[in-house]
Amino acid sequence: MSAAPEFQLSDGVNLQALPKVSLHDHLDGGLRPATIIELAPAAGVELPADDPDELAEWFVAQSTSGSLVEYLKTFDLTTAVMQTADNLERIAREFVQDLAADGVIYGEIRWAPEQHLAGGLTLDEAVEAVQSGIEQGIDDVESAGGYIRIGQLITAMRHADRALEIAELAVRHRDSGAVGFDIAGAEAGFPPSRHRLAFDYLAAAHFPVTVHAGEADGLDSISGALVDGRALRLGHGVRLAEDIETVRSDAENSYVALGELSQWVKDREIPLELSPTSNLQTGAVQEWGDDLVDHPFDLLYQLGFRVTVNVDNRTMSGTSLTRELALLSDAFGYDLDDIENFQVNAARAAFLPLEDREELVEAILDGFEDAAEGVRSAR
Length: 379
Fold this sequence. Notes:
16 helices; EC 3.5.4.4; A_deaminase_dom; TIM Barrel; Metal_Hydrolase; hydrolase
């Protein structure tokens, strides 16, 4: 298994060792560069670099454009090597291994099966291949003495017209790995209302939905995700901060007023799947600045929104969940209690049965208590 680099809080706690929950993590955005290089020749893919480190650097450079549209172009390369059952199975297996190496004990892997049919697979065969890889990865983790649980978020591309078909696919696999549905891709100009039939179907089937919204488009997109999509979570949702107005400030504090939409999201405790590094890369937070300290993550957290921390695309951002938590801690001075809050928020937002979510929360609390006890013992 590949190992994530270690990051520590100021009190010496190793962030990598803490139990974590990953809710917003794209399969085609989390390939190992070495695997891409190995699979590219058979797939007929020409790469910009044939060294894993150089290819990793290329992905990050290409993704740091300030444009979601340009950011999404890097996926042409990754999806090109994900068109056979064997490749999907391997990539999913390695994906699970990498999550476990980063301390993740529950993860939801989102991906769009409709983008993986060029090699002749059917939608169902693609889902089955990914599920096989996930199960192999879980077995690998358990054989090494670890624990992880994984669910698939079956995703439809919002600029296409297959959302109902993909929704039916997701429900068809609800007892064999699929835990939720999403729409992704270019956000502006492709509102959730385009796929109302799919969302109606999912609601009737009592199947959970998260929707990419509030990343490359604003408040109308977020509202559409909630009204038309009946989203239980917001994929990113960072631009919800546009509905928060600073009414006055003094030397020590700022006082804000929430608009109707942001107040609704807060009061309903609708989770925000925030991805700090990715949000900077795609320009989702450019209204507030271009450094992590400008990200409205802390504003949303301090105001009591249900914030969660995510990677979005590990390859494109050169990141891990551990690294994202470390960056936030450095930017905003978060301590172990804050990091625990983010993981509990994510555990409670997981698309799992209530009893399983409660067990996941307990596992998070126990792991963080062990870490806190280790700090106390070391003093």
